[in-house]
# Entry
Amino acid sequence: MSAIYILCLEDEPEVLDNVVRDLGEFEDTFPIEAAGSVQEARKIVADLTVRGDRVGVILCDHIMPGEDGVSFLVELADREETVATRKILLTAQAGLESTIEAINKAHLHYYVAKPWKKAELVQIVKAQMTEYVLGQESDIRPFLGVLDSERLASAIRQKGLLTDE
Amino acid sequence: MNLKKTVGLVLAVLVFFIPLVVPIPGLQFAARLTMGIFMSAAVLWMLEPIPIYSTSMLVIFLEIMLISGQGLLFNRPMAGVSAVPGTVEGTWVVDAASISDGTVYTLEEGRLGKAVPVEVLEIGTERVTFKAEGLSEATLLASDATDWRVQYKPLPYKNFFNALSNPVVILFLAGFLLAGASVKFDLDKTLTRFFLRPFGTRPAMIVLGLLLATATLSAFMSNTATTAMMVTVIMPIISQLKGDDPLRKAVALAIPVGANIGGIATPIGTPPNAVVLAALQGSGISIPFGTWMVLALPFALFLLFAAWLLLIKLFPAQEANVTLVLKGKVNKSGKAVMLYVLFGVVAVLWMTEQQHGLSSNIVAMLAIVALTVTGVVNKEDIRAVPWDVLWLFSGGIALGEAVSQTGLAAWFVNSINFETVGYMGVVILIGLVGLAMANFLSHTVTATLLAPLAISLQYSGVVNGASAIAVLMVMVAIGSNMGMSLPISTPPNAIAMGTGTFETKDLAKVGVTIGLLGFVIAVVLAKTMWPMVLQSL
Amino acid sequence: MSELPPVTSHCLGTGLVDGRSDSAYPLPSLEEMLRLLKASGAADSILKIPAGRVLLEEGRPNRKIHLILEGRVRLTKVDFGTTVLIDELGMGDFCGLMSFSSGMCAFATGTTETEVTAAELGRDQFDGLMATNPTFVQAFNPILIQQLVARYRRMVMLHLDVAELSRQLAQERLELKQALTSLERTQDRLIEQEKMAILGNLVAGVAHEINNPTSAMLRSAANLVDCLKDLWQADMGTEVEATYFRIGMEQGLLSTEEQRIRMRDLAQRFPHLPRSFVRDLSQLPPVFYGELLAEVPSKRNTDIPTSLQRKILAFQTGRMVRGLTLSGERVENLVHSLRNYSRKSGGVRQKVDIREGLQDTVLILGTRLRPYTLVMDLPEIPQVSGDPGEINQVWMNLIVNACDAMGETGELTIRCGEDGDAWIWVAIEDRGPGVPQAMRQNIFQMNVTTKQAGAGFGLGLGLAISKGIVEKHGGRIEVADRPGGGASFRVYLPAGE
# Structure
């Protein structure tokens, strides 16, 4: 079965470590990959696409040496294999122009300002991943205990995702 | 392709051949094939290397291919003997090489007729020439009782195809359309609000209210959809309560328990009921909608009450008062009102089947027509019907048909001495087996596997009369629905567990207790009340 | 009342117009006029009029004409509420001549300033004289014409005066405007400097405040290390965990690439372990794998043994403490740099370490510089004498300018060196568009900026202020092109005392 990944992109190693650590509860269902630069992230996405896996959620900083986060998000939005990926900007600074570009061209799904609270970040990732799964997966049973159960229940009721058997 | 799937497929194939290879006395060829199909299907349904609805379709397909009159094995008209031209009377040729020296039998209407001594003259590659007395042109011959043509008149393939449009399937289709329309127009939420309001704010009453509301809704809608909807209703309650308040568990567990129990209350409440009803109808026994409810409602009410006591005892609330915020508006649009009206009319017509004489299957067709003509149900809603569930029990219906018609049922009944166990013994046994299986397998699969075996017991000495077999089959239905101790037992359990409010051990405690309680209550009712209700059958 | 010098161009007494006699219309003299009046029997028209009497009222019809023999009469007009002096009439002047002759309403108000002796002729008298006395007529007409001419010339002169005054006014207005702009610029600069001063104070205050909790935090972290070590070593069974704790403290964060490789290897060897556990395991140095992996369960869904969990937890505790300490030190350094940056000498010259100042400035700018590749080449240079806070402002200004010039990304170079014995230089170089030759003089002036409105230093004052600071310290600031593109700003400062 194709795996769904969470990708974290942040150039400061300490911060990246904190993000990965905060999202630990998802790792056993949604493996987490960490990247320190856009280049590295690009390679990770290419590798897992070849294996047939997908990126469900990406958390991305904006200001980084070399290529910046928003341009990468726009790039991902333009590619077929990552157009459905839920995109979250996790940043201390992103000016208005970059944010507008992220919303309009990259179809940004959420903006989290640093510093963040762990509980909030977990909620946001949970909600975003729930949307991804509802849009992409036909069998949602493996996710019932891990993702937003209320949202899943509501979708089950409305779309008949699960039936008596 | 992982290991489990490969093992499942290989096992299914192997198991299919066992009855064909192992000599089984008294079982003719078509019945062996059916046994192979049954065992193979059982493996496929239990290990799920392919989806369960897919297995159902495979069952129908194999039956058509292997045991129908248009299938591979039985589609050649059996050739009778023909005279050899230019020889003296008494010399015959026949195509099949199934006869040898000694005695053969004439084959009349699928049964062995008179014995005929033959003297084989010549065995060709295609034909055998022999001498025999008293035969006429086109007489069919069989070597002995084990000849694969004995005791089996090949069923037309239509019979197996018909499993897909069996009246019970139409009944359930109507139920699915009504349920889907209820979700579309938020009737389920409206009814929930209506039901829960009088229950106040005391925790114990709220648990009772949830049990009753969920059970009532799941009697007419799928248990899964009801559970999904109720989960969204209880989330606000749960977030009010402190993390260690046992009331959270009581509230969350009330939903799947209520859903599973409620499903039994009406024929359309849950797919295992369909398998049971179709099996009974196949034997000419028809339980009217209302009668089923008379049987099942007391059971459901007793069990719900017991479940309530269990939940509030096991998980006493810390909070003294819980506010139930029930938001929402009643949908008053034209189509919604039409739905309310139709739902009411259809429900009444179903429940009064005995009074007006119109079978519930026919009322179902009326419901379908009314819903689509008034536009309450549109194309999208039709496409959204869970056709896989309909196919799932179609497979069960087809399997039951084959088991009874090929004589497998009769053989099964004759092979095991049920006298020693007695009628109630059989009832208890079937109930327990069903209960055990349903905890680990899909409820519908449990019913599908047990129903053909159970219905065949009508030919045994222990089960006498329509009412007796009906009671037994109702027990099958109940056993199949009472498996609810694990998250994998049934989707409502998995959905409720997804809320993260209770652990598997809580579910197991509650599920096992209620399952056994239900079984006991059913046995008691089977001995006392049910036979009286079903006397008229 | 606005004063105008009276134009005494129509003095009857001298019989001249503008000092010249107009031969076409010879004016009678005053004596002649008086004689004529007396001869005409109008002697009784000579009156003594007290001061302050209104002889003529603006806007009203006038039926009398006055020939002034002694005294002065003021002619005034009301203009926008103010009374304006138009003329002063004296001996030999006629008052009310125009309005009397034309029949139109009086143009001005005539008021006696002093006691006036005048011949007052009413309408009838005058008409009578004009009708019966040809000598009178002959005498009177030139007067009338002369008055007209004189008034006309006067009007022309006045127009010329007005034009001249307007020009002067415009000129003065222009000068005032320029002065105002200049003042505004100075005010802005002062505000800017004041802001910087306030900010400096604020920063110094905050830095001071942050210092205490930061020190406390670091001290607690150090104590934590000791406590934890003691905790683990207190029990024989847990002594080994102290080692893992120490390893955790010493090991920095793995690169994501390295961690990925280790995780992949571990996952291949132990495919049944949950990924989160594999991640935890992968962070430990492989040297320990031998001893740790012996305890790893070999079957799926088996619990991880407590002793293994504890070792991993000890390691993670070490990492957390390390993170805590490092972050605390980072705050400490930042605060230190901030204080250096905003240090004020208060007028007293101090020894300034240029390299430290540059590094402090870079540190403070922090994430602002992250998009750019920073190249710093700072050999040892002698110290400079001056105000460290101000000099740091110069570096801040130049570095930020370089970043703004480069946009999203680029290479920023900061170098320093000695120029002979007397000078040190600092160069801040970018790979932006560079400064065109034509602009090189101007950019150090106020109000010259290529930045958009609203940008931080976009008032165009930054370089001007920087230049001011540099020159105050006895140095100079230059800009040049770089080979390969970009601008290079060089600051020269006197080395040593």
Summary: The two ends of chain B are 50 Å apart (CA to CA). Residues 69 and 128 of chain B are 25 Å apart (CA to CA). Chains B and C do not touch (no CB pair under 8 Å).
